[in-house]
Amino acid sequence: MKILTDKQPRVEVDAILGSAVRQDIEHHMHHYPDPRAASLDALKIVQKINGWVNDAQVLAVAQLLGISLADVEGVATFYNRIYRQPVGRHVILLCDSIACYLMGAEHLAAAFKQTLGIEYGQTTSDGRFTLLPICCLGNCDKAPTLMIDDDIHDLITAAHIAPLLESYV
Amino acid sequence: MNTQPIPIYGDAATANAETKPLTWRLSRASHVLDIDLYESLEGYTGMKKALGMTPAAVQGVVKDATLKGRGGAGFPAGIKWSLLPPIDGGPRYLICNADEMEPGTFKDRLLMEKLPHQLIEGMIATGFAIGATAGYIFIRGEYVQAAKNLNAAIEQARAKGYIGQNILGSGYNFELYVHTGAGRYICGEETALINSLEGRRANPRTKPPFPQVAGAWGRPTIVNNVETLTNVPNIVLRGAEWYKGLAQGKSPDPGTKIFGASGKVKFPGLWELPFGTTAREVIEHHAGGMQEGLTLKCWLPGGASTDFLMPEHLDLPMDADTIMKAGSRLGTCLLMVVDQTQNMVSLVRNLEEFFARESCGWCTPCRDGLPWTVKLLQALEHGQGHPDDIDRLTQLTKDLWIGKTFCAHAPGAMEPLQSALKYFRSEFEAGIAPVASTITHA
Ligand SMILES: Cc1cc2nc3c(=O)[nH]c(=O)nc-3n(C[C@H](O)[C@H](O)[C@H](O)COP(=O)(O)O)c2cc1C
Ligand code: SF4
Ligand code: FES
User: Fold this and answer.
1) What kind of architecture, by CATH, is found in domain B344-438?
2) CATH for B256-339 (3.10.20.740, 3.10.20.600, 3.10.450.50, 3.40.630.30)
3) Regions of chain B with pLDDT less than 70
4) Which of A141, A145, A151, A155 to mutate to test the interface with B (most CBs of B within 10 A)?
5) Is the model's pTM score more than 0.80?
6) In this structure, is residue A115 part of a structural domain?
7) What confidence tier does A6 reach under pLDDT thresholds 50, 70, 90?
């Protein structure tokens, strides 16, 4: 592992992440006995800059935490809420688990795809929305349910789609 | 049948700390976020009592109360804690499993969003009992509000001296952090959770060593569910006998449980009820019965990874042994209610798509077997199944069973499938293509 770390190209962390982001990550590093534990926190903090995490940022995170690029990349690619390619300004997560399925989630997903003109995993051509499925949001009593950015929306039907999208510019 | 939604704590007039220990405060205020309000409602009294006892005595009460884990497996908490090695002066950790991603489960979210101090109190009391030097609440990333409320509550508790060094002069030191996840259901499996907390891919670890011996950063670690930990202060405060009495003689499992119902009922929701309550009472009384014009076809007792049960099981007391004898598992006790119009092949396909997508990919039977299961179900769903497909599915339920895969994820996936094959075989048979088209497909 050490060998890999030593061969990693050195980068200017602050030039890539900015000092505020670096400090935020360093704050999280203090929560754990080993800085590696902050790798998900770090990727999530970095992701707030542009909505996704690019190659240079992964390298900067690895260097800041003192772990190998492969380790950070391994984490970044494992977790579905870390995006390694560009996404829209708003990410729509449609719950497709059983309670929402029973309450019509598949029809709702079809309506979303049609309204936005995209499939799951795609971004609208104006760069506004990315559409993704997600497992149970723990909101099953208000199914079907979805999340846009950090907001949960309850009891959604096809009629809600247009006004809902309007509120995310 | 009930015509009004019933609040979680039941009847506001009778809801009290003795009968609804986890939720009675919500009958006084719909959110108890502020520490002063929480303390005016008996908050932090259980923790304070615990700090005046010896750690062994706190563990003893919880063991006597036979508190069972609420994360799905039902392992007794007191016994889990007693498997820790003796204190050696080094760090040891308490982790709260707040990953709640089991489809159909939404209880921990409520406990954390509306009563964050109750969980924090439970973690301090438990941390003291097990000698934990630090605690982590591992909460799924989508629970934004819950994480916010917990962080705010931790700051309030710290300001009161309940978290930090020498808590209330007891000599006990405890730090508490909220760690937010970034997706993947497997993070809920306790050894995968530890890997994830350490900043690794969430693949499960080999057991033994169990986390009690070598968990987070190789140190002794206890992982307990949100609901398990919230029970601890009440048990310390009122004692083991009171706790056992809560089930009202209805069941061998002590205490109350957050029950729930979702799916095709009139009023989906959550209710704190004694173990041993029947599914009929939950569905017909608390959830208001089936939606207009629908009849019950089958139900899942506690999440996607439990076996389906039938209408004839509605009057069984919901406790671990009874539900196991009926061929399923209690799981999380949040019922998923399915009506007669639902095709079971499609429903099971939906469930298996979830499990296939959420497989961590570590072991081959699960990584390859689950997508294969989905493919077979998709073919049957579209009337294009092969005559052998039902046998193949049956074989898969054996090949992905306990002991054949690295963790309990794949066996969990097989539970709804095997029970659907048992009770609704004709619906699977109906998906087999007529002979002529089978030949062209082959
Ligand atoms: C695939 C899988 C997912 C799990 N997800 C959760 C979960 O989201 N929350 C939880 O508390 N337990 C979950 N568990 C159970 C945990 O492994 C563990 O048993 C539990 O956290 C122990 O806490 P308890 O004894 O207090 O129930 C899961 C288990 C498996 C196999
Ligand atoms: S059973 Fe599935 S989830 Fe569990 S280790 Fe194997 S691949 Fe991962
Ligand atoms: S199944 Fe959609 S929120 Fe639970």
Assistant:
1) Up-down Bundle (1.20)
2) 3.10.20.600
3) 436-442
4) A141
5) yes
6) yes
7) low
